[in-house]
Amino acid sequence: MKIINVCIGSACHLKGAYNVVNQLQKVIEEKGLIDDVVVKAAFCLGECTKAVSVKIDDGPIISVDDNKVDEFFDEYIAGRL
């Protein structure tokens, strides 16, 4: 199971963190991966300049634009399942 932590701290919130969370949940549901991927909200991941900050499992912090969630999912998640 993959765990995606999305920062919802101040900087990330202003850059669209809730849109990222909602879009990730939608993609996961559409692809039938509800049992394979979990999206969690996290308070400050410590990379405010990368807002919206996302961390997959124990990996590095990745900057995700709320307009490119599908591309992020395909690149960083889909290939690892």
Structural commentary:
The chain is an alpha+beta fold and 81 residues long. It has a single domain, classed as Glutaredoxin. 33% of the residues lie in helices and 23% in strands. It has three helices and four strands. The chain has helices at 10-14, 17-30, 69-76; strands at 2-7, 37-42, 53-56, 61-63. Strand 3 (53-56) and strand 4 (61-63) form a beta hairpin. The protein is globular and about 30 Å long. It starts with a strand and ends in a 5-residue tail after the last helix.
| Helix amount | 25-40%
Low-confidence stretches: none
Strand percent estimate = 15-25%
> Could you give a short account of the major beta sheet?
4 strands, mixed
Spatial strand sequence of the major β-sheet: 2-1-3-4
CATH topology: Glutaredoxin
* Count of the separate structural domains: 1
How many helices does DSSP assign? 3
Label the structural class. alpha+beta
Order of helices and strands: EHHEEEH
| Distance, first to last CA | 8 Å
Give the overall shape. Answer: globular
Number of strands: 4
Report the C-alpha radius of gyration, rounded.
11 Å
Going by CATH, what is the homologous superfamily? Glutaredoxin
Average of pLDDT: 95
Tell me what the CATH architecture is. Answer: 3-Layer(aba) Sandwich
Task: Please identify the top-level CATH class.
Answer: Alpha Beta
